[in-house]
Amino acid sequence: MSDIDHKFISVKRFAKSAGVGLTNLPFFRAASFLLMGALVSSCSPTPITSDMSDVGRVNAVDAIELPDLSGIWQALNTAHWDVEGHTARRMPATNLIGAYGVMQAGTSVVEGGEIPYLPEMQAQRESNQADWARLDPAAKCYIPGIPRQTYMPAPFQILQTDSEIFIAYQWGSNSRSIFMDRPGSSAPIPSWMGYSLGRWEGETLVVDVTSQVPDTWFDAAGNYHSDALHVEERYRLIDDSHIEYEATITDPKVYREPWTIRMPLYRRIEDDARILEFKCVEFAEDLLYEHLRKDYEGPKALDGSVPENPA
Amino acid sequence: MKNTAALVVVSALIGISSIVSADVPIKSWGKPSLQGNWDFSTITPFQRPSSFADKEFLTPGEIEEYEAAVKNSRAVRAAAEFDGEYDQQDLDVGYDQVYLDQGTTMSSTMRTSQLVYPANGRMPAMTDRGRETAGYFRSLQRRAPEGPEDRNSYDRCILGFNAGPPMRSGAYNNMMKLVQTEDYIVIQTEMVNDHRVIPTDGGKALPNNMRLWKGDSRGEWEGETFVVTTTNFNHLSRFNGTGENMTLTESFTRLDDDRLEYRWTIEDPEMYTDKYTSVVELQSTDADLFEYACHEANYSMPLMLSGARKQEAAGIEDDTWLPSWSR
After folding, report:
1. Which residue in B36, B296, B306 is closest to A1 by CB distance?
2. Which chain A residues contact residue B286 at CB under 8 A?
3. pLDDT tens digits for range A29-48
4. How does residue A124 score in pLDDT terms, banded at 50, 70 and 90?
5. Residues B245-267: what's their mean pLDDT?
6. Which of A78, A107, B189, B224 is the most buried (most CB within 10 A)?
């Protein structure tokens, strides 16, 4: 692995040097909030545009300027429940915790609205969805894979070096390396997160993700893929605090044609922003092993107690 | 390699510490580069064996002898014919030599143990509280598991038995990746596919009530050494019998192109009567880390729980669930 690094200028420091303190400018916060609000309310896969005027740059030694994606980011949408448009839905937890235990409504992040399943492959999605709480791999704390890991409801941190771009995800303490210095290489074996090769196309980081196991879903609505999955991600910094994220999904065994999801990723700009530990195993053990506990007496509440008055 | 290590040892002995050779790669912002994949497997014993008594360092010849003896004993075990008798050890550890990846060389520290403090290379005594707590967790693991919580964090795939913090050579997956920017250093361990993102500016400590399996790690450069302090463990983290109030201090010093000194100290007066310190030198490697999807393939947990329920149904009381090697 190369140890010759570019001189990085983090976005935060870039902003400061340009007289644009991210954390002390009410105007910036207000503008950012309005932009976030507009994007969230529309939640549209329509391309997000910007003039790139306030994008942080990596000031490379050899004068190649690349966007600096370093920072803590998070998707703010409901795609982890369902990448297609959906109204609010009940969940198994709804009868226990009421309105908190609900899948929130959201518009589709899929370009064109719907996933172009092959006619004979659609039924599998429906049967997955019908029994999702028992089947969804992410509910079991299995690694969500790409692209789902990106829009799980937790932040992630990008560390950008010349040889690899490392992404540390809070959800599940998962991570991946996007290798920037080994084009044409391939994975030794399939894995849950697959094998990521990155390259820059102008201002956009393009990542080819291959060799993912077929066991992941794209959401809790049963949208699935096969072992032929190929994902091309595109990360484009559109201003200091927003990345336009796209993922084009190709899998000829399951879909009529490639399809694309698109969503903004938001920088976590609070002073003490950090990713914390979310080791999801301990929260999935009831789902996975409850029936194997000593003195198991049937379905129990989330705290392990037997409800006195089940709804 | 051995000659270089010997020079470092000699230098340390004459009081010149933190010698960093000229071929240490430096980041553009002036700090030594720690970035890369590092192999922390070693056959240097964690505690000093009685056969080395008060001997702190080995000669190159003694190291060759020790390494040859370890290789030989593995070869003997690998070639052993099945004697027709199953014993408890066969049941406890379902690995043969093909699965184990414990390294074949001693650390280039040329020391007789990883532990360098206490000075005898042995673990300090536990406090009464430490023994009582360890006994409680052993009792949970001895009985037929009533649920996953009876098993330790390694069986549950929450922590890795060698991933710490701190990292310590174990049966396999003795690999870690360091990713370094000016503001953060990530430690990614292959074991249970886990990471720590450590700020390099000292960070901001979490409040006392926020307890994490891996604790809260904050780093700072002290000269050429990156020093990481970790607190806020939870009461189940239990590295080597430690409790939630332990303080872990880790130091990473790049020695040259191939070697990284990894030193750590644990202070836990609740569980141990003294602090203890380990030092090893990690080797740079071009090998990639694999995604060790431990939980995703944790067939052991449902099988253990199923077995325990079968025993109950048959009226069998079994308190032998603690593996023989940890009794």
Report:
1. B36
2. 1
3. 333 333 333 333 333 444 45
4. very high
5. 98
6. B189
Six token digits for residue A66? 């690349």
Q: How many residues does this entry show for chain A?
A: 311
Q: How far apart are CA B114 and CA B278, in angstroms?
A: 5
- Find which of B29, B177, B195 to mutate to test the A interface (most A CBs within 10 Å of its CB): B195
* Three-state DSSP class for residue B193: helix
CA distance B280 to B261: 6
The CA-based angle A269-A278-A24, given to 5 degrees, is 10
How many Cβ contacts (< 8 angstroms) between chains A and B?
121
Structure tokens at A74: 């998070």
Residues of B in contact with A292 (CB under 8 A): 147, 302, 305-306, 308-309
For B301-322, write each residue's pLDDT tens digit. Answer: 999 999 999 999 999 999 989 8
Task: Look up residue A143 and give its amino acid.
Answer: I
CA atoms within 13 A of residue A173's CA, in its CB half-sphere: 31
Number of other residues whose CB lies within 10 A of the CB of residue A251: 19
Q: What is the mean pLDDT of chain B?
A: 90
Task: Give the count of beta carbons closer than 10 Å to the beta carbon of residue A92.
Answer: 14
CB-closest option in A3, A292, A294 to B33: A3
Going by their DSSP bridges, the two strands B36-39 and B175-180 should be labelled as antiparallel
CA distance B225 to B227: 6
Q: What angle do CA A147, A153, A158 make, to 5 degrees?
A: 60
Q: Nearest-5° angle of CA A19, CA B221, CA B6? A: 150
Q: For A191-220, what is each residue's pLDDT tens digit?
A: 999 999 999 999 999 999 999 999 999 999
The pLDDT value recorded for residue B323 is 77
Four-residue CA torsion sign, A84, A88, A90, A93: positive
Mean pLDDT of chain A: 82
Q: Which of A65, A38, A33, A64 is nearest to A49 (CA)?
A: A38
Cα B21 to the center of its chain, rounded Å: 27
Residue count of chain B: 327
Burial class (CB in 10 A: 0-12, 13-18, 19+), A101: middle
- Rounded CA-CA distance B6/A174 in Å is 40
Q: Give this prediction's pTM.
A: 0.86
Domain range annotation of chain B = 35-48+114-295
Decide if A15 contacts A56 (C-beta within 8 A).
yes
- In this structure, the number of other CB atoms found within 10 A of the CB of residue B310 comes to 11
| Residue B2 DSSP SS3 | helix
Query: Residue B196 and residue B174: Cα distance in Å, rounded?
Result: 16
